[in-house]
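Quick question, first post here. What does this chain look like in 3D?
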Amino acid sequence: MRGRVPIGLALLFLLLALPNAALALDHLFDCRSLTDKSSIQPYEPLTGGVTHDSDDARYLDVNLSVQFRLAPFCDNPAGVHNHFYLTMATRFGFYWDTRAGSPVIGKRYNPQLLWRFTPDVSDGTSTSSKRYIDVGYAHESNGQLVHTPQQYQSQLLLTPDVQEANQYIHRGWDYLHLAWKLNEFGHVATYLEGKYFLPHGLLQGPEDEYHSWEDNPQGKERKAVDGLDAAVEYPVHADKILGILDLAAKYQTGYDVPLRYSTERLEVGIQAGPLPLAVWVQHGYMSDLATYYLKVTSYGIEVRFFSFSTQP
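> Answer (accepted):
Ran it through. Tokens below.
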């Protein structure tokens, strides 16, 4: 992260102080303890598997995430939930036996302050809720250190392979986030998501994306390929297809000129005994933050958990 970090920390401390104010309203709300297990959950699925991108070597792909409920810690008696969260998602690529030294390369660091509105009686902290609306302020970067053409030339001396050297170019953005989950069609869930990438953010400072010195004919701004997302999942309840399968389809495009640059992704979930597996294929952009602007075909297989519990 670069830029005005003290301001971001001040906002975080402010949110951490909100529980004390919320306790003054306990006569209106059913308040829960900080020790309630629902206060800490994964924000995105916890995954580990093998990924191959057509512009990169094969690597072990690990995604970890957590969401921690901040304030208020209370629910409306009518069943409506309004909660603030601090979320964090990370991604690492372990190039085991595919690059010299088998390096581990950070690919994504994504902290976010999030407000979730859940108009259901189901647990508002769970991604299995039937419906919710998220509004957030987020920072996303790959945590790398190459910012200038001089640094890039130095990196090429260390890693002469251009594909590998490109993984060390820094990318970073702050963005506004809006997500909406619907589950009004029986066993089908629909997700709509929007992001607006800020030219200058509280945590990132000036956005850091494709630079002219990279001299790639496919180079473009992130808003050209990302910012508008739609996804469907079937089924979303315990009953799977043939008892073991579930399906997901996702579409992504930029908001600069919608539909001009698109990404399609298909996923098949397989319950293999106690292991929840997912096989997926993707064609388009955003396979990696460092080379988000390249059109790439990717595929992989992973173990995927939606909670900290390992129970199926």
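Helices lie at 5-23, 149-158, 162-166.
The chain has a mean pLDDT of 85.
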